[in-house]
């Protein structure tokens, strides 16, 4: 935007506001001066969404939230579901770049696979918004949890629950190549460093898979029947961890901390049942709202794709038996449809 354009815009705004003051003084209705420009900027724009897969609370909630917030403004949200296939995800990303949407929202399966595609998309004028799981390549916006904080909170809860017990704990990671796992692990390590009484007897990856989580937890509990706590990295996977604890007759004796999107069945109901003792929620509807707000701002032309590197960390909510039954603690996927 050159000086003459800026001056003309400023003068136009001043005149519009002066006209508003005049009309208000006369008690008349008037046109809002910024409304038309906003609507024109959003109308007809396409947003592509590439999750790791659909079919669970996080990705379904983000998709529905984006549609709810963006489509009434004339935008179109298109879904490309690679169904846990990293290669298919890269192909979908490449195809979307060729279609030239205004924005691509991507849920990275690991730190490397989409890195070059993120650079390519922004070089071609497409904004890239990353949700929850980062790539090694930053983009214009990241919306997601502060995973180090998530790890510290979970490990601190386990540490407190283990006081007066064996102090033996275990970690059930997600996929080791995902930034989410690496950052959460760093948070757990921070707590371990300050609490040398804790004994880490197992640190294994279940790759976000509940079946793997159950199998490895069964083995750990056989080797360490006096285990006092487990830090899990995702509620969808830790359903398996909880099942292994229950089968061993240790529910209530082995403290299980995990994290998730705060959906009723995945979070609050599991805490109320005793399957999880502590869950850090990053509240999917809030994340979807944050993404939509950033997208609306970006497509109005304020920033060149790739020219900024901004982060919006989601406010975290710990869920325990004290608040799991309270109205508003969790959201319901069925109601979001």
From TrEMBL:
Q: Which SUPFAM superfamilies match?
A: Periplasmic binding protein-like I
Keyword field contains Transferase: no
Residue ranges of coiled coil: none
Q: Which GO terms describe its molecular function?
A: carbohydrate binding
Tell me the keywords, alphabetical order. Signal
Renumbered to this chain, the signal peptide range is 1-23
Compartment list: Cell envelope
CDD domains referenced in this protein's UniProt entry, alphabetically: PBP1_ABC_sugar_binding-like
Among Gene3D superfamilies, the record links this protein to: 3.40.50.2300
List membrane-spanning regions. none
Q: Name one GO cellular component term.
A: cell envelope
Query: Which parts of the sequence belong to the Periplasmic binding protein domain?
Result: 47-301
> What protein family is recorded?
Belongs to the bacterial solute-binding protein 2 family.
Task: State the protein's name.
Answer: ABC transporter substrate-binding protein
Q: Which organism is it from?
A: Verminephrobacter eiseniae (strain EF01-2)
